[in-house]
Fold this sequence. Notes:
The chain is of the alpha/beta class. The protein has two domains: 3-182 and 371-385, Glycogen Phosphorylase B (Rossmann fold); 190-369, Glycogen Phosphorylase B (Rossmann fold), CATH 3.40.50.2000. The protein is built from 13 helices and 13 strands. Helix 3 packs across helix 4 (107-119).
Amino acid sequence: MEIKSIKKADPKVVILHIIDEFKIGGAQTHLVCMLKSARRQFPDVSHVVVSIFNDGPIRAMLEETGIPAIVLKIPDTKLFVKSLSIVGQLCRIIKTCRPCCVEAHLTWSRTLGLMAARLCGAPLRIGFEHGDTYLKSAPWRVVNYCSQFNAHHIIVCSNALKNWAHSTHHIAKKRMKVFYNAVDLNRFDRDGTRAAFSKKELGLNETTMLFCSVGILGSGINKRVDILIQAVALARKNNNDVALIVCGDGDLRPGLETLAKKLKVENRVKFLGMRNDIPEILAACDAFCHAAPFEAFGIVAVEAMAMALPIIVPDSGGIREIVITDNGTGLLYEPLDVCSLADKMALLAAKTAEARAMGLAGRETANRRYNIDNYVKELYSLYAFPASSMKNG
């Protein structure tokens, strides 16, 4: 969409959302989820979304809901050299939209988008830190430290991420607000979701404890699926009937498939590639597991809880905060410890009734703590939007 075609649709409240790119990712899907909820609850609020770099599937999702989307299409080379040009383009969009609030998601958007918003006098400037913990070199630490002064608030998705941002980038704790990421519970509803496949179709027994893992299989942000595969192999060696579904793709996939063959569990570890039917995949599984040693939050773990699955996650990072008490909604294990993880897998496989009870407790917790409608309502309360903007308000 051309910048000149964007008009201020409503004189009351306009929010401009800036994100690095429109590819599928945690920050992008969370933004779409937020916007769908905002449209339901705050019908008088208008939205425009800008991607600095690349187009992708997220743009179509936004436009399906009637939200204008702009792609600047800036090549991702020599970005620091192009920074002033990007800020200039964003300034033109801000002056056209005249938003009362600018939200910036991910590091480049926070750095350049909030700078442009401040230069243009946007009344409210909000940065979202979703967990770009791999950007911790000296230049990025300086950039993140300086960028905080362009934001009125920085939204972080866990206390662990808040502490990390403070210790690594020296972002003031008083500037950060913890909002746990949330999900659309209407989409993640086990009772209303048909499983994508049966265990029989995978060549498994009906009694097999089927685990699910979801995440990019890339070396840039390594989710350590190798730990999951090794744990499955060890659990099976100890006579536990377990198997693993892996959703995701990336440059590490060939090596992970080779590892499964080497450990002789290639028939028990199923690689499904990138999927857009995660609720249906989760509905076919018995439990969820995760292995990244530091996850800022782990939205897919909440999605699994919403689907009434018990979860097994490392006792570290923001994802650990999702499990309120060990054995309540899931199990914790020592990060990167294959033996510890295999023991937890074996425990769920041996105690299926307890596993189901954990799943039900997880569903209740997701309803109470991770409902996207509650998230947006609380967020817009922070923005101090008028009650007249709210549906039936």
